[in-house]
Amino acid sequence: MKLPIAARPQVISRFWAVIRRFPKLIATVLVFQVVASLIVVATPWLIGRLLDLIVAGTTRAEVTRYLIIIGAIVAAQLLLTYLGEYFSRVFGQAVFAQLREDLVYSVTHMPLSVVEAAGTGDLIGRTTHDIDRIQFLVQRGIYRIIMIVFTVVVTYAAAFALAPVLALLLLAPLIPLIFVLRWYMRRAVPGYQAESAQWATLSGITTETVEQHSTVDALNLRRVRNNILDVAITQIWNLERYTAYLRIFLLNAVIFFLQTPALLVALAGAWAIPNGYATLGVVTTIALYGVQLSYPLDELSYWVDVLQSAATSLARIFGVDEVESDRIASGKQPTSNAVSVRDVSFEYRPEHPVLHGVDLELRPGETLAIVGPSGAGKSTLGRMIAGIHPPTSGSVTVGGVPLVELTENELHQNVALVTQEHHVFVGTIADNLRLAKPDATIEQMWHVLKSMGAASWVQELPDGLDTKVGSGALTLSPAQAQQLALARIVLMNPHTLILDEATSLMDPTAARQLERSLGKALEGRTVVAIAHRLYTAHDADRVAVMVDGRIVELGTHDELVARGGEYASLWSAWQHE
């Protein structure tokens, strides 16, 4: 599955919506740009006027006065340019920060089923490479593009106001440049789209290889992974080379055509001045306007290329928002804590069901263990109960309300899932715990850590709860990370908790101690334990046995052992391991 890519009109409207959030900054930037643009066109006009005065005969004092005015204008231009750039950078930083915050919000509210189906590469590429690509445009490009547009418009307006016929010559390069830009755009847009997609592929390959390095080493897959990486890098090289060729062509074509206006004005002036159609000052002013236009238009061609790259990245970033939610909130509130699974079937891929008509009623406050061979559908059923995947058919309800009709916050207040895949977020121990409950007190955090047997090692850390952990800081062991994850869930306090082999990374003795501590901490709550160690089933109130996506047995440990069926066989085999 590929994440959506926003259409160009949506990119423009969404980006404009972000920019409009900062009206005061926009107004400040525009005022400085307008005034700076007006001052820019004043200097060539004053130079031309001075030349006419010199030709006609004037005093040294008059020349000095003009030079002082020109100097003052240049100084004012420098000051306005500095202030304009300062406020533009503030504006750019504000816009960029808003884009990042919006993206983080969209990613963290994306259905987990979509995240898993899309894979890590595409999402990582959008949150890293694509966001980096737009940073330069937002922080520097917006200001420069606004400045260029105002400068070009005001310069052309001044030229036509002074000498309309000569000013027409300044339009000469625009006609061929239109054809150049059309040629460039037809190739640049798909080129940059392919480039961004390939960067996402490379991110996925790299992330998968690093995260699963132990598997790569164990199966001697280094050469295979290196070859896959080489192919991806080669494809990126080819795409980068292609877009670089487009950039070089565009920039050189613009430079070539922008040299013509000043030359054409000079040639026309050689005829117009002797025949009395224009003065030396007017011709000089128009020629200077032509030179003055060449710099912003040349720079504009550079920003056109940056815009294409950034627009492609923005389309990928805004595309994250187009992922359809897998839940539609109905506003109904559960009338009880009872979770019911009714005739649930589920397919990860069409025509490949992994659950078949599962029925299960969870009794509030009980501990239910789900056991069965690998691939029986235990984890999938757990994810159904946690509301991560909507069932293909059937329903999973809490208090009579389907889980897919609850908002994210309502779902997490009712049901939560802990898997064997743990994650320690960058920050302090307290930060990691407060993800579950932002207003948690120090006493509450120590209480849940103690209940998980983690208080002792947290107390031994240099700064206790304020110790920084995660990437670039203290690295927790897998067992410590699992304790932290479980403490976070206990602090969240849902009434139903699904544990999908949540203690599998611990040794059996430590795992059983933690599960007993967890049982005490979760007393009165409904717990679904997907078990790979059968003592979990032994300690549970009831046991559900799954085979081939179906519940084939359901009862207490003693009942199922006495029945002599599938569970009895599993228990006997586990006892003799």
Using brief descriptors, characterize the structure shown.
2 domains; six-stranded mixed sheet; Rossmann fold; 64% helix; 577 residues; alpha/beta; four-stranded antiparallel sheet
Describe this structure in words.
- The chain is an alpha/beta fold and 577 residues long.
- It folds into two domains: 8-322, Up-down Bundle (ABC transporter transmembrane region fold); 339-575, Rossmann fold, CATH 3.40.50.
- Helices cover 64% and strands 11% of the residues.
- The protein has 22 helices and twelve strands.
- The strands form three sheets. It has a six-stranded mixed sheet with strand order 6-9-10-3-11-12, with helices on both faces.
- Strand 4 and strand 5 form a beta hairpin.
- Helix 1 packs across helix 12 (280-319), helix 10 packs antiparallel against helix 12 and helix 11 runs antiparallel to helix 12.
- The relative contact order is 0.09.
- The mean pLDDT is 84.
Number of strand segments: 12
Briefly, what CATH class of the largest domain? Mainly Alpha
Tell me the major beta sheet: 6 strands, mixed
Principal-axis shape: elongated
Proportion of β residues? 5-15%
CATH topology of the largest domain: ABC transporter transmembrane region fold
Query: Number of helical runs?
Result: 22
CATH architecture of the largest domain: Up-down Bundle
Radius of gyration: 34 Å
Going by helix content, strand content and strand pairing, the class is: alpha/beta
CATH superfamily of the largest domain: ABC transporter type 1, transmembrane domain
The end-to-end span amounts to: 41 Å
Residue share in helices?
A: 55-70%
Give the low-pLDDT segments: none
Strands side by side in the biggest sheet: 6-9-10-3-11-12
Counted up, domains total: 2
